[in-house]
Design brief:
- With about 575 residues, the protein is of the alpha/beta class.
- The strands form 4 sheets. It has an 8-stranded mixed sheet, sandwiched between helices.
- Helix 6 runs parallel beside helix 9 and helix 15 packs across helix 18.
């Protein structure tokens, strides 16, 4: 979806650089870039974003001094593929990275390599060739195993606190509070790197370990939140979050630990911001802040106290393509260039845009053959406004936390304009949401907009065909099960016949006008959860005609009965 304002906007940006005499093509004026990526921080896990309890004065300052893109999306629901997209401007499946990189056996079972191919151009390698000093500090998670390439192989000169994918605390560090103190250690290294390279342009990743589980704040960190008494129904959490938090077994303790962790993260970032001021680098430095995916789920075994992060009004969490799993912070600060105090409610920006945008600001051309999936959003960062030129796409082949039946929600998603569509590779299971009007994805309007479903389904299916072949994808598509889910349970002929009889009788009761078809209204009659009913209806509607035949109703009901 292109806009006629795009060319004008870009021209205005270039003109402003020329007038100011600060064209980024001049090496001496190229901006520094620091990319701060937290781990599993929810979309509303900061005071400025609406969290009711945590105190984050430094993140609030970052928002006040920069622009907050409220519709910023990462490219995956979990860490390794999300990081791949930031570094390469490619959807992670192009590099066969579909989930988190783990041990070799688990990677192989999910049709994944043990590390990102070091021959792939990355933002660091591109900037390094253009004369930038480059650093990676903190979590890596783009390679595992004793033979995995280290970050140096991907264009980083200065690397600290990471070797392949081995946890830092397993490398002779016996401090039980290492994770709690880690952000401070990482910030120390980034400050040292900035001091050493203040005379030349530099790029630095600061990728934190927190608030990823397990969390164990120090007694000093925890003290400030010892009296916190959170309420699951606090309006600041939004309806989805309130319902989710109501199931937490020890919300008080969990929220205390979580807020103490975030508060220390904020305090350490404040030290970085102050150091940039003292070094007189703030005006020359682009700061970008985000998280790799949405908030963790407390139902994960080791994540109880990390799983109460706030997604605000957004539906779902990590491991889900709903908004709460893939919409994260998009904060940008560059004093005098990026508008201060701006809250951009409308621009749809993605992690795949990060590489071409930073390269544009640095005046560094993209290497031939890169073929980025993202687009240059520098005009938006610098205050422009326009629709994005390309849709954003997602693919998720694995289970979603909280689902116990192993069946797949739709495998694909696409965001184009106001619309977000979920669909399966066979074109079925479509769900459609107007994200502008319904950020919480509560109202599936697929039945009301069949033309939109058809168009976006075509886009999503065409995009998936551009991805490299993948056995895990074929398995999930063929079975309807998550690629890491349990085997389909056998259903006896007698049980299948019983289910068919029950579904047939139920259909006749719902078919109040006796026309042999169920409208959405008839289907929802006496349905215990209307929102869930509206979500299910289009998944039953195999021919997408907006009504259910008896065959559609009975057949899909039998599929759902296989648990």
């Amino acid at each position: 979806m292109k806009s006629t304002c795009m060319g004008l906007s870009r021209c205005a940006v270039v003109a402003s650089w020329v007038v100011a005499g600060m064209g980024p093509a001049a090496a001496s004026e190229r901006p520094n870039v620091i990319f701060i990526l937290t781990d599993d921080q929810g979309w509303a896990d900061a005071r400025f974003a609406g969290h009711p309890y945590v105190r984050t004065p430094n993140l609030d300052r970052l928002a006040r001094e920069g622009t907050w893109f409220k519709q910023f999306y990462v490219a995956s629901t979990v860490c390794s593929p999300s990081r791949t997209a930031f570094m390469t401007s490619h959807y992670p499946a192009r590099h066969h990275i579909h989930g988190h990189i783990a041990a070799h056996g688990q990677n192989a079972a999910r049709s994944m390599p043990d590390w990102l191919d070091p021959q792939a151009p990355t933002l660091a390698s591109i900037l390094k060739q253009a004369g930038y000093a480059t650093a990676h500090v903190g979590k890596w998670h783009l390679g595992s195993g004793p033979d995995a390439p280290t970050p140096e192989s991907y264009g980083f000169d200065f690397v600290r606190h990471t070797t392949g994918n081995r946890p830092y605390w397993e490398e002779g560090n016996a401090d039980p509070y290492f994770r709690a103190k880690s952000t401070g250690l990482f910030v120390d290294e980034v400050i040292a790197f900035a001091k050493a390279n203040k005379g030349r342009p530099f790029y630095a990743n600061l990728w934190t370990l927190v608030p990823h589980a397990p969390l164990k704040p120090t007694p000093e960190q925890l003290k400030a939140y010892e009296s916190l008494v959170p309420q699951a129904g606090d309006p600041a959490f939004g309806p989805w979050m309130s319902k989710y938090l109501a199931g937490a077994k020890d919300l008080k303790s969990q929220m205390q630990v979580f807020c103490a962790t975030l508060a220390d993260l904020d305090a350490q970032l404040g030290r970085l911001f102050d150091a940039l001021d003292e070094l007189k680098l703030s005006d020359r430095t682009v700061l970008f802040f985000s998280s790799d995916n949405g908030a963790e789920d407390y139902r994960i075994g080791n994540a109880a106290n990390a799983g109460v992060g706030n997604t605000g009004p957004l539906r779902a969490r990590k491991r889900s393509m709903y908004e709460g799993g893939v919409r994260t912070f998009g904060l940008v600060r560059w004093p005098g260039r990026v508008p201060a105090g701006r809250v951009d409610e409308t621009s749809v920006v993605g992690a795949v845009d990060f590489l071409p945008t930073v390269c544009a600001l640095a005046g560094v051309p993209l290497p031939p053959g890169l073929k980025p999936d993202g687009e240059d959003m520098s005009d938006l960062w610098l205050g422009g406004s326009r629709p994005r030129a390309r849709p954003l796409f997602w693919e998720w082949l694995f289970n979603v936390q909280g689902r116990e039946d192993g069946y797949m929600p739709p495998m694909l998603a696409v965001r184009d304009g106001a619309w977000k569509l979920f669909v399966n590779p066979d074109g079925g299971g479509a769900q459609l949401y107007d994200i502008v009007k319904d950020a919480g994805e509560e109202r599936d309007v697929a039945a009301q907009h069949p033309e939109v479903v058809k168009a976006l389904s075509g886009q999503a299916l065409a995009w998936q065909k551009t991805l490299p072949p993948c056995a895990a994808r074929e398995q999930a598509a063929a079975t309807g099960l998550a690629a890491d889910g349990p085997p389909r349970r056998a259903v006896s002929a007698a049980a299948a016949a019983k289910t068919a009889r029950e579904r047939t009788a139920m259909f006749k009761v719902k078919d109040t006008d006796r026309d042999g078809k169920l409208s959405l209204e008839e289907y929802l009659h006496k349905f215990p959860d209307e929102a869930e009913g509206r979500r299910r209806f289009p998944t039953f509607d195999a021919d997408k005609d907006g009504v259910l035949t008896e065959e559609e109703f009975v057949t899909m009901g039998q599929v759902r009965a296989r648990k």
